Amino acid sequence: MISDKELTRISKFLSFVLRHQPAAIGIQLDQNGWADVNDLIQKANAHGIRFDRETLNHLVATNSKKRFAFNDTYERIRASQGHSFDIELGNNSQKPPQILFHGTSENSVQSILDSGLKKQSRQYVHLSRDSETAIKVGQRHGKPVVLRVFAEEMYNENFQFFLSDNGVWLTDNVPAKYLNRYNERD
Ligand code: HQG
Fold first, then answer.
1. What would the pLDDT profile of 129-143 be if each residue is shown by its tens digit?
2. Which of 40, 59, 93, 116 qualifies as a FRET site for 100, CA 20 to 30 Å off?
3. Contact at 8 Å (CB) between 186 and 143?
């Protein structure tokens, strides 16, 4: 049985090639972000990341954030969000909840409150429905801070929102006027 540590290593590798650098192992993604599963396995193995189809199925099914998805025929795989290049995820714009959350670090807060949330190196700004998720996201960058985004108001003012297959809300940018610092006691 494969260890959790090894699964995490493969998951990080898949995030790297399916979201950011497919060319690093010589695979190609189509405009919707899909890679051929057999090609992915073969080229990953050739680059020293060894796993088989069974392990990949297990990883996709058990991944904590459901980061990856197969197509209907299980011949192709893609990352559900998080890309650093433009792909068509095929999710239609939809009305978000009134409030969404963004987790960041104390170091970035002032800049965000001044200039808004920017997508930085990714295709979208990532938002969550609940503040707990935002805390976890923020912790990746340092002392976590949660920001509240007035998503419905943005939507009513013609900003687009997309819901990824794994439940992450995506939007292009959040101007500072639609943001404030969230305090659980509010
Ligand atoms: C910050 C993980 C200064 C922003 C997570 C964030 C998520 C600014 C950082 C997903 C700024 C970008 C994405 C501004 C934004 N000034 N800093 N104006 N605007 N920032 O990693 O949202 O585990 O690209 O606050 O769970 O942290 O990989 O984005 O701190 O869903 O599946 O710039 O990645 O998912 O950092 O995380 P990131 P993120 P996975």
1. 999 999 999 999 999
2. 59
3. no
Tell whether ligand 1 has an atom less than 6 A from the beta carbon of residue 115. yes
Tell me how crowded residue 98 is: count the other CB atoms within 10 A of its CB: 11
- How far is the C-alpha of 141 from the C-alpha of 80, rounded, in Å? 22
pTM value? 0.89
Helix axes 37-46 and 53-62, enclosed angle (nearest 10): 110
Cα separation of 169 and 100, whole Å? 8
The residues near 104 (Cβ < 8 Å, ≥ 6 apart) are 112, 137, 138, 141, 144, 145, 147
Question: Cβ(104) to ligand 1 under 6 A?
Answer: yes
Distance CA 168, CA 126 (A): 7
SS3 117: strand
Which of 114, 90, 87, 107 has its CA nearest to residue 29? 87
The preferred substitution site among 63, 107, 111, 120 for testing ligand 1, maximizing ligand atoms within 8 Å of CB, is 120
| Residue owning the nearest CA to atom 36 of ligand 1 | 120
Query: What tens digit of pLDDT does each residue of 9-32 get?
Result: 999 999 999 999 999 999 999 999
Question: Which domains, from first to last, does the chain contain?
Answer: 4-79 (1.10.10.970), 100-181 (3.20.170.30)
